[in-house]
């Protein structure tokens, strides 16, 4: 199916599903519903210990879980792997605890970006305030908690996050290579130690100044707040355009704040050697140096001056400073202001062109689909399934994949195919030890299909000519008489009997959840795979084994039904 035409997508969807859904089938699982695996360790699911432990495990509703562990099988596999590990106290990076902790970190780290420049610029005044010590202790405690939580939170070097590391030593080594030193320095309660010691010396003042500058390194770690903010918006299902607008506003506020703090530091850094040549500038400098004016008043004056020179761009309505130092400072503000204005223009342009283009096209596609369904007078159930199908297929961003691929060169297309094939091969055990060139040809010849919950992939009693490899999702297997015998998940395959025998299918295969599969047709398989190859023999053996198993299960179930009917009579 192509992403290029909305009406074509709807028609293809209906044709595919009407052709196969001759029997209305709703999956009601008859296999044993497995309890939460944690109950193997903590039997009572209502206990406080169970709930607390569950907060540290992978959360199925976490935005990153939905992105990297899309199917219930991969989610449950990761859950079991964590519970079975010896490190019960390690926090999964996609846990509910970590999500709410990152909400706190978002506010904490943004506050830091405000306080650090403010403290450095107004250090003299703030050190003589009692409130600064309470604030410093609070920040030090928060920083200590951050270090501890980071030391017991799993991580992964795999960009697909399929192998989370739970070993405390490995976690610490990875943290040590990153931002541990910066976080540790920020957690040291220097202000409190100075206050308790009661020492007042010039060398200590110099040390505190140097330490304040070192704290600026903490600002290097704040880029993660945008990822935290993104997770919040995704989990709460808030429009991403609001996210970009909010991020843009937060960055702009920080920029103006830092410029104001830098301006104050620059003006009061040293005495102006040209004192007396410009009385207005001298008064301006004296006002910022006088601590009796208060932080709020002086900070407000800095913001006013910086805003004027950043956005005004000229001295048309203000007297130009006369001293060389003042001229240099104002010139720097003007250059920075021009750069910031250019940044504002680029961000607004990017917001309009990129965000509106993909999301607007998706909205237009859905609108066109709704008009199509209204004209065709589809029942509500079909309408809801079509809308769900579009949401899953396009992920709320419209893009014409076929057109994009047509514009690419052959080497780029090959690289994309190899990347997709490599991820696919890693999931499918039957492809183990098969030459990569053979697998690449197979994947390039396969077709991708999408199935919604309760869609029928294979129908018993019909002739088949293709097999299915489950990329993500899960399906249920039923015999012809209606007995549910198994579930299949990511990396499993079904329908392989049709590659070797032109017999009618023996089972129904029903999608349990949103499922993506790769389809391999018999003709393609026979053209690419020699009967003497390992893959051919491997699939043939699996087909024979499964066929015998299904026939055996069917006979047993029919005997059971006959006994039940005889007993009822």
Describe the structure.
With 569 residues, this protein is α+β, with helices and mostly antiparallel strands. The protein folds into 3 domains: 42-238, no CATH class; 245-376; 404-568, Jelly Rolls (Sandwich), CATH 2.60.120. 61% of the residues lie in helices and 7% in strands. It has 22 helices and 8 strands. The strands form 2 sheets. It has a 4-stranded antiparallel sheet with strand order 1-8-3-6. The protein has a 4-stranded antiparallel sheet with strand order 2-7-4-5. The longest helix is centred in the middle third of the chain and has 53 residues, at 324-376. The protein is elongated, with a radius of gyration of 32 Å. The two termini are 52 Å apart. Mean pLDDT is 75; it is low at 1-7, 13-24 and 313-317.
State the end-to-end distance: 52 Å
Residue stretches low in confidence (pLDDT < 50, at least 5 long) are 1-7, 13-24, 313-317
> Any idea what the shape is?
elongated
Structural class: alpha+beta
Features:
single chain; 569 residues; alpha+beta; Jelly Rolls; 3 domains; 4-stranded antiparallel sheet; 22 helices; 8 strands; 61% helix; 7% strand; elongated; disordered N terminus
Write the layout of secondary structure elements.
Blueprint: H1 6-20, H2 48-56, H3 63-68, H4 72-84, H5 96-121, H6 123-126, H7 130-151, H8 168-177, H9 180-187, H10 190-197, H11 202-214, H12 225-235, H13 240-267, H14 279-289, H15 295-311, H16 324-376, H17 380-394, H18 401-407, H19 410-427, H20 436-445, E1 447-451, E2 456-458, E3 466-472, E4 475-479, E5 484-488, E6 493-494, E7 507-511, E8 515-521, H21 522-528, H22 534-568
Antiparallel strand pairs: 1-8, 2-7, 3-6, 3-8, 4-5, 4-7
Helix pairs in contact: 5-12, 5-13, 7-9, 7-10, 13-15, 13-16, 15-16, 16-17, 19-20
